[in-house]
Amino acid sequence: MDAYADVLPASPYGPSVQGPRCVGTGGSPDTDRTGHCELMGWAAGAWVDFRVDGIDVSTYATDDALTAAFAGYVDALLVTIEAAGEPAARWTASASTPPIASCDDLGTADEVGEVSGLGEIWFGSFWDGPRVGQYVYAADTTGALRCSLGFLDRDAGFGHVSVLPGGEWGFLDAREDWLADGGSEVVVVGVEPGGAVLRCDDGEECILDLHRQHDWIRVAFPPVPPASVDYMPALDYAEARASAVPLAEALLANLDG
Fold first, then answer.
1. Quick one: how far is CA 219 from the chain centroid?
2. Residue 240: which H helix or E strand, with range?
3. For 237, what's the count of Cα atoms within 13 Å in the CB-facing half-sphere?
4. Residues of 144-180 as b/e, b for ≥16 C-beta within 10 angstroms?
5. Are 113 and 120 in contact (CB under 8 A)?
6. What one-character DSSP code corresponds to residue 93?
7. Percentage helix, strand, coil, to 5, in the chain?
8. Mind giving me the DSSP string for 139-151?
9. Is it the case that residue 224 has pLDDT exceeding 80?
10. How confident is the model at residue 130 (pLDDT cuts 50, 70, 90)?
11. pLDDT at position 171 over 80
12. Which residue, 140, 98, 146, is CA-closest to 254?
């Protein structure tokens, strides 16, 4: 919030809050219009990120009128949060062994490009815009990583590798649901039996979740882009998706020395 403090209007909910703000009532009455409302920041002793899309704005003459109506829901939400009392103790991530401090600890761009079949790529962290918000705060606090696979000659990429140090609780909590939804246990060198679940249906994201020591590691590739998409290079994206297991094994081998 501090990054925007000089350009945002003051909020009735305090200096660390952006909003309430609503837009979408303008335009021709003959068109189908929907509104968007949002509020984010530190309020009622908690980080609040409250957004609503697809609002029927036909009964609101202005954005200010829509914002006033949204504020009523904000008030009710904050009362509920305050009534909930103090939150439980925050989870503190344990350190990986050996430490995974950066994407370079997982592997080089040359290695990732070769194993995935994507060729010459870059491999590392990517941020579009200023580093603000609860996601950045959580990532910095826990030491979590999201390492993207990006193409050198264009503003596009395909896939990422994520690491949550000490995040085994997330893997263990979701594992049975993944299997029930069609995921399957797979053998991954460097992972104990039962510690790797693959979900890779055609037309959907291809995700390999791993439980390594106390960490949760994920290798993920999006669906194969349609041939009509001209901003992606002409590559075998099905091959890249099929590389999730060998790519994970290569990265784990680097971590284990």
1. 13
2. helix 237-242
3. 22
4. bbbbbbbbeeeeebbbbbbbbbbbbebbeeebeebee
5. yes
6. P
7. 30, 25, 45
8. HHHHT-EEEEEEE
9. yes
10. confident
11. yes
12. 98
Instruction: Please give the structure tokens belonging to residue 141.
Output: 């606090």
Query: 0.90 exceeded by the pTM?
Result: no
Q: Report residue 103 as tokens.
A: 């994407």
pLDDT band, very low/low/confident/very high, at 102 (cuts 50, 70, 90): very high
Full strand arrangement of the beta sheet holding 17-23 = 17-23, 34-43, 46-56
Residue count of the chain, please give it: 257
- The SS3 assignment for 17 reads strand
Sheet with 215-221, strands from edge to edge, namely 121-124, 145-151, 157-164, 215-221, 206-212, 196-199, 184-185
Whole-angstrom Cα distance, residue 140 to residue 119?
30
Q: Are strands 34-43 and 17-23 parallel, antiparallel or unpaired?
A: antiparallel
How far is it, in rounded angstroms, from Cα 137 to Cα 127? 13
Provide the 10 A C-beta neighbour count for residue 39: 25
User: Which amino acid is it at 93?
Assistant: A
Dig out the tokens for 144 from the structure: 């979590």
Task: Calculate the CA dihedral of residues 83, 84, 90, 91 and round it to 10 degrees.
Answer: -160
Neighbours of 211 (CB within 10 A): 21
Task: Report how far residue 132's alpha carbon sits from residue 2's, in angstroms, rounded to the nearest whole number.
Answer: 9
CA distance 62 to 41: 24
Q: How many degrees, rounded to 5, is the angle at CA 84 between CA 20 and CA 88?
A: 110
